[in-house]
Structure formats: structure tokens, C-alpha cells
Design brief:
With 771 residues, the chain is an alpha/beta fold. It has 3 domains: 273 residues, 3-Layer(aba) Sandwich (Rossmann fold); 108 residues, no CATH class; 280 residues, no CATH class. Helix content is 53%, strand content 14%. It has 30 helices and 21 strands. Strands 2, 3, 4, 5, 6, 7, 9 and 10 form an 8-stranded mixed sheet that branches. Strands 14-13-21-18-19 form a 5-stranded mixed sheet, with helices on one face. It has a two-stranded antiparallel sheet with strand order 1-11. A hairpin with a 5-residue loop joins strand 18 and strand 19. Helix 20 packs parallel to helix 29, helix 24 packs across helix 29 and helix 26 runs antiparallel to helix 27. The termini are far apart.
């Protein structure tokens, strides 16, 4: 029989010193991060725990003028690690003896007390903070705070962190933190084994009793730590005791220990809680059940995805990006380069968007006056003339600059509104090149004109404001294009996170994800990938095993289009039949499931059990959503933007050395042969490595110019969706898993995507499918 008792001797009260600091610990999704923000303010640091990819947040509190370091640990359910996150928290508690504020969910007291009893066994000084008290009240749950405090022997406080209720008591209570006298009494055979192991263990931040229980439960993660402190003989003796005890029970030792501890937690919770009938809305209950239902959850999911697409895809990736890119930074509408050479007069003229083209005109005769070259800036108006050729119209309302000579000095320029008609550029004798560009916006054109007018080196101008410029491409991409998507997506994601919907979604899709060797938790980074795969790759840390994280990283890089790319794809599919949209959806979704299933069989390692707390549906607090979003945007600024800039520098170097053009030429036969696409499509795929929607936009232009038939459009869209990850995502994979894994992922995806596209092209044309 398992029983629980309270020690009559309560350890003397101790205070928190500035040297000790304070540790926040608790279950996942209990408001710990909100409390951390209220305790420390805005000035925090986020860094990886040594030797891991798990981030630990640190800050400082200032009670009474003193400065106390505060550490916010990853959420845990037990001190016996089941994931890298839980191991990091356990290791922090193992090494740091600072007092602990355990944050728990009052409406789920048994789960909270299960961790509290382990902290009590560990001999740690702690305070129990029961958060979400308002939700417990709404469910008719009342807790005898004084009675619980007396039973545990530690101070217990109630808070509603999102409304700052009770949070002012946290730091004063932490200063009075003490260890608990409450102990769980286990089966006599387990108690005997504990007594045999305790004398063999070294002193640490956790009690010897706690360490003994962890070792009996088979915690292999402690082995390396033990070898730093114990001789192999003692380690072998501990293992001998564990194996002897395991033979005495029909069930596994971890199950036996946890079951007896949970029984004590439930017994204690029943002593101090009272439940009364509550007036929860019938509609909320019905909606809560529907979100997890295998059938009714589907329309709820579709509604959520539709709302996210409108907010993130239309507003964030559309309206906000267009404003920042075109109005603030500036977008190049036409880029023309006229090269003066003795080859003769050019008979053709064209305008291009986004890439420079070369055109030749005859040079001035020696001793002749400067030549006047007439240049007409035109753009397509989206319609066709009677002879079937594209119609063009002059560009209007844009600023035009004409530069000549390698020195970059301005020979002729116009500013303000440009009327339709013919423009003249003076070509002085000896000039070798004329650049004529038409821009929107402010930042990029100003930088371009400044460097062209004052920089003595063309390479510097191109590095800052050229086609692969650190500002015109890198900063514009990171700030004007990705930042609006990141902000809107994190706002939407934080709303869903705080509403309690995401755990319910994980339950609904758990069975489907089991096919791919994953569980329902994997849906969270997959959904985030629809906003930005780079951000989603980081969130794979919530998955418990290395195998699961690697599978999801592979699937994100392979087949989850970001919102910017998805917008271009949907725009192209809109011009085809419903059959084309269906084929694209089935192909991409089928590939994800198939590759996930194959990866689960090939990649070594184990999966994890699907254990997830299901919170009630709630209306999120706006302030909490803003705080979370700002913290995530701060991470984006520190972690992701440097990756974008680095990628731009690499592309600039590849362009200057000719490696980029060489790659385009090398890819062209494959694109033209296997995929049956125009050779110009190879440029779109290469640029797609910089940014996925750049590649899709390149295909969009080819389709707009009438160079792709419906079958080619569909084949190109399937291929570009499955194409190698963008350079920012590639570097994030490097950061998370290393260079070798990133290269293996890209090395698999590229031939696989082209093979799938080629197979689709062959099938559609062999069957004569009309799209």
C-alpha cells in the first residue's frame, strides 16, 4: 500500500540571495513564460543550453533594489527526462541549488502535484504557484490553499498571470522558500533498493533519494554525470541493485514508481480541492469536443487555416509586404543595360523585371559629337494585340536614372513623374555602358544612386545595392518581405496557442501522423511551416526524440510551402482547372505522407508516446499575445536575419565568380529534358534557393508570357514546391542539425523533386490529361 505523510519537522526558512538567483520550473503550458516576463521585465537573454539545441531564457529581477538572476527552464512533466527539454531542466536543477518557483495549473492539481512531490523528494527549496486560478474558478474548482501549504510544508500562492493577479507575491514568497517535508512512501522493496543506492551517490543539487529513484527508473541520461563522480565499481553496484529489483515486479520499474507517486498526488489533491457544479457554456463544450473529433474537427481545421491564410497570406504576405517592399524599400520595375560596342545596331529591344539584360548600340565615331540614344521604357499591359503578340505600354510615375561609364558618374538623369513616350540618354564619346533603371520606393533607389554616383568601385555598388546586394536583396528580403509574414503568423500562432486549440488539433491528427512515425505534436511545426519553414524548423525542438525532429525537418524542407510561395502557387492554379488544383494537392500531400513513412523506417531511433495536456478553450489575453509575439520577433531579428544576410553574400559571390550562371547552365538540360520546361525555367529554380516564392514568381512570369502550357504549369509547380529548401531554411537546418544533415537533406530533396516532376509530366502527357 502506498501512503503519503508529512514530516513534522519543517526546515528553517531561508532567503534568496543575489548569488543564488531563482529558477522557474513547471509543466508545459501553465503560464510560466508569462510569469517570467512579469518578474524580469523586458531585458532577457535567450541562449542554447551547452551541448544542446534547447533554449534557456535568463533575466534579472529587482526586489527591494537587489538584482537576482532568474532562469526560466523548459517545461517538464517529470524529473526523469523523456525529451531533451526535460533533460536540460533536470540538469539545471542538478547543478544549481537556487530556490525554485514551481508554476502549476490549478485546475489540473494532480498533474501539478506530481511534479511538486518530485521536487519535495529532491530536497529542493520551492514555492508552489497555482496559476490560471480564474479558469479553475470557472470550472467550479476551489483549492484549500492553506491546507495544501500545511500538507506540503511550503508556501502556496494563487495567481492569474495574464491579469497580474497575485503575481506581486511571487518574489517575496520565493525569498521565504523552504524544502518540503512531504514524502511518498513506496513499496517496501523499492524503499530497500533506495536505501542501498543512497550511500553510493555523491552530493548534488538533488537529494540522494531523488537520484536513487531516477536511477531505479532507468534514467540513462544520468550515466555520464555519474561517471564524473563515481568509480565504475559503484556504478556497477547501482545497476546490480536496479536489475535485482526489476525482477521482483511484473511491470517495469518506471511504471511502478510513477504509478505510486501519482497515487499520492491524486490523494493529496482530493484532500484539498472541492468541485462544484459550474456554468460552463454548452456551446463551448460542444465546440471543444468538435475540435478533436475525427470528422467534425476537419471543418474546424479548414476554417482555422482559412482565417490564418487571410490574415497571414493575404494581409501579411500580400498587403503588408507590398507596402514595405514597394513603398519603403523599393522594388525594381525595369532594369536595362545598354552596352556600347562596334558590333552594330541592335534590332530588338525588351524590358525585364528583376534581372539585368544587355543591349548593344553602335559607338560614336571618333571625333563625332556625343550620340543621342532613344530609349523607350515599356511594360506589358497583360493583354494581347490582334497579331497575337504581347501589348506593351510606357511606364509611368517612376523615377528613371541613366548612368554611363565604369566610373559610375551620372551623365543624364530624370526625376519625378515620367510621361509616356521616348526618353533620351546622352552617350558621351568613349562611354562603354548605360544602365537605366526604374524603381518604386525610397531606400533601395537612394542607395543605388548614391553608390553609383560616389563609389569608385563597381563591385562595392553591386555588393550594397546590386541584384544580389546586401541591402537591396538581403535586408529587403529579411525586413520588407519576411518580417511582415513572421509578425502576422506569430500573432496568429500565439492566438491559437493561448486559445487551447493547438493541443486539440494535435489530438485530431495524431492517427494520421502515426503513419509517418510521428505523433500529433508534429502538426504544430508543420502548421507553422505554412508561415515560414525557417521558423518552423526551430520549433521542432518541442518534439521529444531526435528521430521525430529529423523527420519533421525533412518534411518541412521538402513539401510545406511558406505563405509567400503558397500565394504565388494558388494564383497560378487559379488560371487552370479544378483538376489541376486537385492534382497539385494530392501530389504534395501524398509525397509528404510517403516520404514521412519511408523516413520513419530508415532513420534510426525511437518515437515517443503521445502525452498531451488538453486545456479548455479560452479567449486569449491580448497583452499575452503581444508579449509572446515580441519575444519571437526578437528571436527572428537575432537568429534569422543574419542567416538571410549570409545567404545574400554567398549568392553575390556565386554571381560574381560565375558559379551561379554555371549552375543555371548545368541545370538547364535537366529542366528542359526531364521536366519538358523552357530552358529559362532553370533560372527560376536557381533563384528559388534564395527564396521559395522567388522561384514560383519566376515561373509565374513565364506563364504570363505564354511560355508554359497548362501541363507545364502544373509540373513546374509540383517540382518547385518539392524543391530544395530556401537558403535561410538551409542555414537553420545547419544550425539545428549540422552541416552534414543539411547537405543530406538538400541532396535527397533535389533529385527526388525533379524525379517526381518528371514522372508527373510523363504520366499527364501519356494519358493525354486535359488541364
Amino acid at each position: 500500500m502506498t501512503s503519503a505523510r508529512t514530516s513534522t519537522a519543517v526546515p528553517p526558512e531561508q532567503t534568496v540571495s543575489s548569488a543564488e538567483g531563482l529558477i522557474l520550473a513547471g509543466n508545459p503550458n501553465v503560464g510560466k513564460s508569462v510569469i517570467f516576463g512579469l518578474v524580469t521585465g523586458r531585458y532577457v537573454t535567450v541562449s542554447n543550453y551547452p551541448g544542446t539545441t534547447v533554449e534557456v531564457t535568463r533575466g534579472h529581477a529587482s526586489p527591494g533594489g537587489a538584482t537576482i538572476p532568474v532562469t526560466d527552464t523548459p517545461g517538464i512533466n517529470t524529473l526523469i527526462p523523456q525529451s531533451e527539454d526535460e533533460q536540460v531542466t533536470r540538469d539545471i536543477l542538478l547543478e544549481d541549488a537556487a530556490p525554485i518557483v514551481q508554476v502549476g495549473d490549478e485546475k489540473n492539481l494532480p498533474r501539478t502535484l506530481l511534479l511538486a512531490l518530485q521536487l519535495a523528494e529532491a530536497g529542493r527549496r520551492f514555492v508552489l504557484c497555482l496559476n490560471m486560478a480564474d479558469e479553475a474558478e470557472g470550472l467550479g474548482i476551489s483549492t484549500d490553499i492553506e491546507g495544501l501549504s500545511a500538507r506540503l510544508g511550503v508556501e502556496v500562492i494563487r495567481t492569474v498571470a495574464t491579469h497580474r493577479r497575485g503575481t506581486a507575491r511571487i518574489l517575496p514568497a520565493a525569498a521565504r522558500a523552504r524544502s518540503s517535508g512531504f514524502r511518498v512512501t513506496y513499496d517496501p522493496r523499492i524503499e530497500t533498493a533506495i536505501s542501498g543506492i543512497e550511500p553510493l551517490l555523491p552530493d548534488s543539487g538533488l537529494s540522494r533519494r531523488s537520484l536513487a529513484l531516477m536511477l531505479l527508473a532507468g534514467d540513462a541520461s544520468l550515466t555520464l554525470w555519474l561517471r564524473q563522480w563515481l568509480l565504475e565499481e559503484k556504478i556497477a553496484r547501482i545497476e546490480e541493485i536496479r536489475l535485482d529489483l526489476a525482477r521482483q515486479f511484473p511491470r517495469s520499474l518506471p511504471w511502478m514508481i510513477n504509478a505510486q507517486r501519482l497515487r499520492s498526488a491524486r490523494a493529496l489533491a482530493s484532500e484539498v480541492t472541492r468541485a462544484r457544479p459550474h456554468a460552463a457554456g454548452r456551446l463551448a463544450e460542444i465546440l471543444g469536443a468538435a475540435t478533436m473529433h475525427s470528422l467534425w474537427g476537419v471543418p474546424v481545421l479548414l476554417a482555422v487555416l482559412c482565417a490564418m491564410y487571410l490574415f497571414v497570406g493575404v494581409f501579411g504576405a500580400g498587403i503588408a509586404v507590398e507596402f514595405l517592399e514597394s513603398t519603403l524599400f523599393g522594388k525594381e520595375l525595369a532594369s536595362l543595360q545598354l552596352e556600347i560596342s562596334p558590333d552594330g545596331v541592335a534590332t530588338t529591344f525588351a524590358a525585364s523585371q528583376g534581372r539585368e539584360r544587355q543591349f548593344r548600340v553602335p559607338p560614336a565615331r571618333p571625333g563625332a559629337a556625343p550620340r543621342v540614344v532613344e530609349v523607350l521604357l515599356v511594360k506589358r499591359d497583360g493583354q494581347m494585340a490582334k497579331d497575337g503578340q504581347p501589348r506593351w505600354e510606357p511606364l509611368r510615375g517612376e523615377t528613371v536614372q541613366v548612368f554611363t561609364g565604369e566610373s559610375g558618374r551620372a551623365a543624364y538623369s530624370t526625376a519625378g513623374e515620367v510621361a509616356p513616350g521616348v526618353y533620351r540618354a546622352l552617350v558621351p564619346e568613349g562611354a562603354s555602358r548605360i544602365d537605366l533603371r526604374s524603381w518604386t520606393g525610397w531606400v533601395n533607389p537612394v542607395l543605388y544612386r548614391f553608390f553609383r554616383a560616389h563609389s569608385p568601385w563597381m563591385v562595392l555598388t553591386d555588393f550594397v545595392a546590386g541584384p544580389y546586394g546586401i541591402v537591396t536583396m538581403g535586408a529587403t528580403y529579411a525586413v520588407a518581405i519576411i518580417l511582415p509574414i513572421v509578425v502576422t503568423f506569430f500573432l496568429a500562432f500565439s492566438f491559437l496557442e493561448d486559445s487551447g486549440y493547438l493541443p486539440r488539433l494535435a489530438v485530431m491528427v495524431n492517427r494520421l501522423f502515426n503513419v509517418m512515425g510521428l505523433n500529433g505534436k508534429a502538426v504544430l511545426p508543420m502548421v507553422l511551416g505554412l508561415g515560414c519553414a525557417t521558423m518552423a524548423t526551430l520549433t521542432t525542438r518541442i518534439l521529444e526524440t531526435k528521430k521525430e525532429r529529423l523527420i519533421v525537418i525533412l518534411l518541412l524542407a521538402l513539401g510545406v510551402p511558406c505563405s509567400a510561395q503558397l500565394g504565388v502557387i494558388l494564383g497560378m492554379l487559379a488560371g487552370l482547372s479544378w483538376k489541376a488544383a486537385l492534382v497539385w494537392t494530392v501530389m504534395v500531400a501524398g509525397v509528404i505522407v510517403l516520404v514521412g513513412f519511408a523516413a520513419s523506417k530508415v532513420i534510426p531511433g525511437r518515437g515517443s508516446d503521445f502525452i498531451l495536456e488538453i486545456p479548455p478553450l479560452r479567449v486569449p489575453a491580448i497583452g499575452n499575445i503581444v508579449i509572446k509575439t515580441l519575444a519571437r520577433v526578437e528571436w527572428y531579428a537575432k537568429e534569422a536575419i543574419p542567416l538571410f544576410l549570409l545567404g545574400t553574400v554567398i549568392l553575390f559571390a556565386a554571381d560574381r565568380t560565375g558559379a551561379l550562371a554555371l549552375a543555371e547552365r548545368a541545370l538547364s538540360p535537366l529542366i528542359s529534358g526531364l521536366l519538358d520546361l523552357p530552358s529559362r525555367a532553370s533560372e527560376a529554380f536557381i533563384i528559388g534557393f534564395l527564396r521559395r516564392d522567388f522561384g514560383s514568381a519566376g515561373l509565374y512570369r513565364l506563364a504570363e508570357e505564354g511560355l508554359l502550357d497548362p501541363t507545364q504549369i502544373l509540373v513546374s509547380l509540383v517540382t518547385v514546391t518539392l524543391f530544395i529548401p530556401c537558403i535561410a531554411n538551409f542555414f537553420m537546418i545547419v544550425k539545428e542539425k549540422g552541416v552534414k544533415v543539411a547537405l543530406l537533406v538538400a541532396g535527397f530533396i533535389f533529385p527526388f523533386a525533379v524525379t517526381v516532376g518528371g514522372a508527373l509530366n510523363f504520366t499527364l502527357r501519356s494519358l493525354g490529361v486535359s488541364l
